[in-house]
Design brief:
By secondary structure, this protein is mainly alpha-helical. The longest helix is centred in the middle third of the chain and has 34 residues, at about 380-415.
Amino acid sequence: MKTNISKYILVLVVGAFIWACSTKKDALVNRQFQSLNTKFNVLYNGNIAFDKGLKDLREQYHDNFWEVLPIERMQPEERALLDDKPKNPDFRLAEDKATKAIQKRSMYIGGREKNPQMDEAYLLLGKSRYYDNRFIPALESFNYILYKYPNSDKISEAKVWREKTNLRLMYDELAIQNIKKMLKEPGLKGQNRADALATMAQAYLNAGHMDSAISPLVDAKMLTERIEETARYSFILGQLYGRTDKKELALASFQEVIDMNRRAPRPYMIQSHANQLLYGDLKKVDSVAFLDKYKSLLKDRENRPYLDLLNRQVGLFYLQQEKHPTAINYFKTSLKESKGDLYLKASNYKSLAEIYFNQAKYEWAGQYYDSTLVLLPPKTKEFYQINKKRDNLHDVVMYERTAKESDSILRLVAMSSTEQDAYFNSLINKMKLDDKRKEALANKGAQSNGQSPFATITNPLTGGSIDPIGMAQKALSNTAGSGSKSGGSNFYFYSSNAVSFGKLEFKKRWGNRSLKDDWRWAGSSSISNTESDLNTDGKAAAGEVEEGSEENLRYSVAFYKGQIPTDPKELAAIKKDRDFAYFQLGSIYSDKFAEFELAVEKFEALLLFEPEERLILPAKYNLYKIYLSIDPVKAEYWKQNILSQHSDSRYAELLLNKNISSEVEGSPEQVYGKLYQEYEKGNYVLALANANQAISQFVESDFLPKYELLKANIIGRLEGIDAYKKALNYVALTYAGKAEAKEADRIINRDLPKLNALKLSDDASRSWKVVYSIPAESLEKSLLVARKLERYVLDRNDGKVKFSQDYYTVNQVFFVLHGFENERSAEAAVAYLKSASAYKIDEAATIVSTENYTVIQVKKNWELFLEMKNK
């Protein structure tokens, strides 16, 4: 009996359980069962997965502290707006759990949801999709809550998440409008209100309104219940205050983060210290307090991941104090401690480059600028500015090296033989001391940094660094026995003297080493006797060492004196290069770096060198322009100098401001385009007149060098190669460093020599022209001739003969028929044009080969050609 009763009870329990599991019945037990099962089973596991995914996302996210931080950390790698496939496994699991809860636990009966946990499920579904960068599906989930569960206690939270999603979809204005309405609702309180205000601040930031973002972010900071958000919002406020020139408030905000100490994440605290230095007045900083604080920060073991940033801040402090060596050390330490912040590394390289640039160490500065550019993202304003400065610096390095080496050689040339001996002996003695010091270090095993044994040495001729082996090879290439007997090869080991020179250099750096493995790390096997070495060195300096010994090159005065050039042509070329380098340096310092004192130094030194005529006037004019900014009295002196000694020059016209009264219409770019079209059409006289007007009108425009170069080309067409060269020279020297000046210099050095080599010739030709020479003043009267020639071309209708009207000079125009295959056919055409009743052209015609016509236009030697033809 008892057994039957137990069976009946079991059946009833199972039946009640099955009845409670039904989602179709609206009974208390059903609602409670489904609610508890949803909350403590499916959603519980889903929330655990969601929290894990969110934690991982925040830990993997790397803030860019060089920009204003976003309110919410979120990986921006992929923006899958419509994709329904989850990317993050934790968010995928959370979404699966939310979906399972909705599909199996929903009790939608009579048009209403009876399971009170369904709004939680949809909220979890939307958040999982949101953090997985699937914003449109996320928006659908949040909207479903708003439409289906208007009385839910999660309605405010759902509204906030909807506006977050609108931000991700770039509906910033819509989000701002909706949040403003939400803030008026009494039910929006606590963390939800803080999140809404923070979202509004982000919307303003997205729209570029930093001032408007500050107020809601302040309120969000006061309302948020999360310590991490308090620190983050305070830091962002400091950034916003700093970028809106509210430095006192910025410093206060960063101090709030610092005062939170361990409650704030470490990156915010360290970055707050750095930003306080950025927005503070370094001139008013208490040096002792500052150094004590950073000394403590650098010693703190918890700050090891931030040593790169901390060392940079100390470097910036010393840079402001103009203690450059110390600043350099800290910047280099920051580079060594780098933890992957590429912009921080780039900033260190840039700071080092600026220091070396200001110290006129342009080669080092250029190398650090190169390193900066490698780390900066291209197509940014900062990259463009540094790249432009680096390009300019390349020219500075090149010309400074030329000037230094040329100056050194010319000074040596100007010395007497006795002075040269004294000079080289002094340098040789310094080299000996340096070599002894290196040898001592080598013998102690101090040379453990993997240097090449063939290091550079100081060049006694130029003062620069050189490769001793390369110098020996170059110096010995023309001496007896320097090459092999069979072919005179320049290979290093074929030169016994070069080999000796290399052995000596190796010995001076590394000492006497045994031929064995790891020779560099072992001490010297046999140490040379110092006294003996000194004696030998003394003999070498006096020229008493035997010919071919190791010492007779490096310590030989005769060796270096033999390298001093003596040929007058070679010396003239060196002087010419030196003078041009000084001119270019003056122009670059003035125009591109605004280093007016350096520019004046170069130009005034150039004038003392008595340079070639083409450099004198441009140098004076540049001095006048520079002194207008720094010394008006001296500017007036150079103005009067130019007006009195060069009164007929273009520079004198510029100084007298001889502007043409009429003006051309349009912007400099538009006018240049029209001018170039006239030039392309061959209307050179009109183009020249308009170019002169434009040059007078657009004196301060960046297009002025373009106008000048175009004018030079027009002058070349109208006046010939000599005038062309003069005009190009004006452009090259007046606008030195500009692209147009470089192009003018290229034409002078490459194209003009080829044009100069052209000569009139009697050689056979396969192309001939018929030329009618017309005075410019008779051009209108001769238009009938032009029309007849054009009609003749149409009448022939063979596609070979063409007509053109070419300017020869301003006063002379050529009517030209092109395309005759031989001289005889050209003569026949002339005779036909003269006799045919349809044409009756009586003007004298000249038959010219295409090659000679080119020479005539380039060299303007029409009269010479006529004389040759009439002989």
